[in-house]
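Hey everyone, long-time lurker, first post.

I ran two proteins through the pipeline my lab uses and got sequence/structure pairs for each. Pasting them in order. The first:
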Amino acid sequence: MAWLVAAAAIGRAAETPGEPPLLYELPAAGSYALPPIDRVSEHVLLGSDGREAPLLGLRPGRFAVVAFVYLGCHDAAGCPLLLASLQQADRKLAASPALRGRVRLVTLSFDPARDGPAEMDNLRQRLAPRSDWRFFTGRDEAMLRPVLEDFDQDAVPALVREGESAGALRHVAKVFLIDGERRIRNVYGSGFLDARILIRDLETLLSERSPGD
């Protein structure tokens, strides 16, 4: 229930006009490079409809933004902040003729025991995607483990302190920018993920493609 309240607050925040100023001026799209960092494989997981589907499903000239979260996260600077930034990015993508239809947002829970397809679908409805934003989980840890290893995403049980509920996971929130060849082009932490930076990075990657892509 606490997560649903937080998700509703995220939704209201994303509809609020105006954004805090960045501490620096964004470079022009295409004026900088995002060299490939690594390459990931395709993985089949469970979508929020309960059906198996490819996590990325990319074609050349398309991009994915992959975020790992879990619904039991109560760290305001962790998963809730990350999802708020992704929802802002979702609105910007939907409003961009150049990027709309070329970028897939992917949110994946690394807590399959508690975050089943129904819970991920509930989150999807709360966040009300306007672009191609998909939500995934695993059938079990065995299904999810190869994905976490491929993306080098840690998620281990946290020590439970007095007054805390069991089920907390210790992790570093990460968001991955993936190109159509499944190459990682940037990695963002929740504290450094700003929708405007993400959109500018996507515009920069888009400028690498020929007009016919």
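...and the second, right after it:
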Amino acid sequence: MKAHLRWLAPLGVVVAASVAGHYMGLGVGLLTLSGGVLGGVIWLMWASLQGLAGDVPLTLDEALSLGAPSTEEEQKRSVLRALKDLEYERAVGKINDADYAILAEHYRNEAKRLLRAVDADLGPERERAEQILADRLAAEGFEPAPAGAEPAASEPGADAGEDGPDAPAAKSPTSDAVP
């Protein structure tokens, strides 16, 4: 029953837009329809954010913080931007090669440090996501791969034909055709 009720809102918006458009003009009808679509998109985004939190209710502050970059991510962006600007200044001749080498090494080391920090911050979330995936696969009847296992690869030579990658390619029936 609840699944059928969720279709009443879009249907109500279409009916309201049709009525408004009939009595007040096309512009008002389209404005009503676009307002309903915007409201629907906001509702879908909010519902998806609440799904990320699981069974725990998600507050507005928590939802906003999900999209906010961390301090390390912001610093990483600024360091990468500085490297790009440094490349540009070298290309146009504003900086000599010796100064470029010193500054580029400094910025690259800082970027590496920040990338490691961002990766360390995401470690617990990555483990949580992998656990959720393993639980869902188990619920669906699939056997999760052991931790650290590589994805199943095809047999050697399967992509290049049965004779291996060094074997000459077989002639296709259209290979003799004139272009």
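Reply from user beta_strand_b:
Welcome! Quick read of the second one: Residues 70 and 115 are 12 Å apart (CA to CA). The chain has six helices and no strands.
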